[in-house]
Each structure stands twice: as structure tokens, then as C-alpha cells.
Amino acid sequence: MREDIEIHAEFLGEIYKTFDKERIRLLIGDEEKQVKINYNMNNLVKKAQHFSVEIMMFIPGLAYSNPSENELTFIIATQKQYSDFYIVPTVERLNKLMKNSNFTIQDYISLIKNYLNLLEGYPEKAVMGMVPINIPYQYIGELMSIYIDRGVESFCIDVGGRTALSLTQQIIEVQRSLAKDKIDAFIHATNINIGRAKKGSNTITAKDVLSLGLGFDSIGDNHLRPYIRDAIKNPVINLRLFDKDAYGYHKIQEAREIKEIYPVDSGVKPEYLLDDSLYRRRKAQATFNYEQISMETERLRKVIGEGAVGSYVRNKRYVDKDSFKALQRLKRGYQGSGH
Q1: Domain range summary for the chain, segments of one domain joined by +
Q2: If you ran DSSP here, which 8-state letter would residue 155 be given?
Q3: How many other CB atoms sit within 10 Å of the CB of residue 114?
Q4: 277: which strand partners?
Q5: What is the 8-class DSSP label of residue 216?
């Protein structure tokens, strides 16, 4: 997000770092590399403080399998310094790894247990269990049991770059596990996709924001997509801006289209979204969407508390019937688990 833009909204800070085998080997074996990543982490924390972020989460994404004890303790030590939770690492694209290699769910379970065992000796802090739901349904209950048996009551759901509503059975199993033990858990979702535009439409149903109605307490970015970085001028606008009154992401290609959907409560001025630099423009887009989603999260919490989420969401212009029906079915499961 851009620090030069003043906005007023509540955020949770999500720091997501991808580690391949070579990168983490260098971090453990080269103090200069370590200094560099710590400098970056300190800058991210300072930026979070600028936006009055009260809770920081450092989520490690592994691009390889079977990390060593040294690699896991390095991650834990980094979380001790920069995160309000000890968060079990996710393995990126775990579903493909399980299909295309010898890596099995038991390997990931071993990773979880090794991580949890290694927490002994570190200062006490809340633990957040990682539950990748882009894996076969049959494994979700086993993962949840491991965490619940260890007293874990906070969870990070890794949606794996998909929309949460495309993996409903996995979410229902998470609900069932929590309801069975009467756990009112804090649930964060990461790597969550906003959805796709229907053919002939310039608007995407905001399925990431809809997932808040499933009982997720917060949502993060999808970190599995290609990252665009440039400092040159690029005249093509090509933005996706969230409309909290209609639950859609509008595809913006011309300046006049921003004016048509621009909300009066935004602190992100239209000129920031029209910057000549693609990099700065994307940063402004992220700031705008975080701001608007934060405002809608607060509004949605009140609606959920009043038990009126169904009628509230039904009236959103871009919420299609299939998404609404899926939300309603899943919401009934959460009512049984305290969400």
C-alpha cells in the first residue's frame, strides 16, 4: 500500500513471504542476506504502524517440501520478532505437489508436527494452524484434529489461489471440526481469489469479500499470482476496483469509469489511480481496495451479529444466485459453530 495516501480504516497486517530451498539456505548461512530480509520486514512493520495496524501476521509460504529443523526454527525466530502469531508454514500449490511428486499428506503432517514441537522454548504466543483447503477433502478432518488436540484456536485457511466458494466441502469440514469441540476460532484466509468476470461482463462478483459471510474473520491477498513491478510510464489504466455497495470488482480502463463508481468515503484520490507508473497505480489500487474492504468488513460484522447476512448480501447487485445459495448453505454450518 502507498504511505503517501491517507485513509481511515481498520486492517490486519499480512506479511507473506515465499521461500524456496535456495533462498532459505542463503538466509540461514549468510548474515548479510539475513540483514537484508530483516530490513525489509522492519519497513513493512513501520508501514503497518503508519496505517495503525494492530495485528501482524507473518505467513511463510514454502515452495519446496520437507524443510529441515534449522529452516523451521529460522521461520519461528522470524515470527517471534515480526508476527503476533506463530503460524504454521503453508506449502504453496500443495495439491499439485501431491499429484506430481512423491510428497504425500503425511509429509505435510510431519511438517506441522515438527513445527509445533519446535515451538517449545520460544516465548509464548498464540499459534495459528495452517489448513490448506486446495487438497482432497479426506485430509481436512485429520489436519483439524492435530491442531485441536494441541489446543490451537486460530487458523489460517490457505485457499490456494481459488475462490473459497469453489471448495465448499472443505470449509464445511472445518466448520464441523470447530463445532464438535465448541471452538469459537479466529479464522484468517490467504491466497484467496476474487473470482472471474462472466463472459461479456466488465465486473467480477467479489467472491473474496463474500467469503467473510462464511465466518472468516479476515482475508488476505492472493500471493500466488505473478507480481508486476515496473517504474516506467504505462498509459493503460487496467484496474480492478472494489465496489462495496454492489459486491463487484469493476474493470477500469478509462478515467471517466473511475468517476462513475468512486465512493465519497474514500481517501484514495482518483488522481492516484491514474498515475503514469504502473507500479504506483497498482499500489494505489491495492490501497483503495483494502480501504473499501475494511469498511465493508466492519459493516458485515454488524449484519452477521444481527443475523441478517442473507437479506443483506442478496440485495448486492453483482452477487449471482449460485454464489448466494452456496453462501447460505455454508452460513448455516457456521451458525452451529458459533460464527
Answers
A1: 13-335
A2: E
A3: 15
A4: 233
A5: -
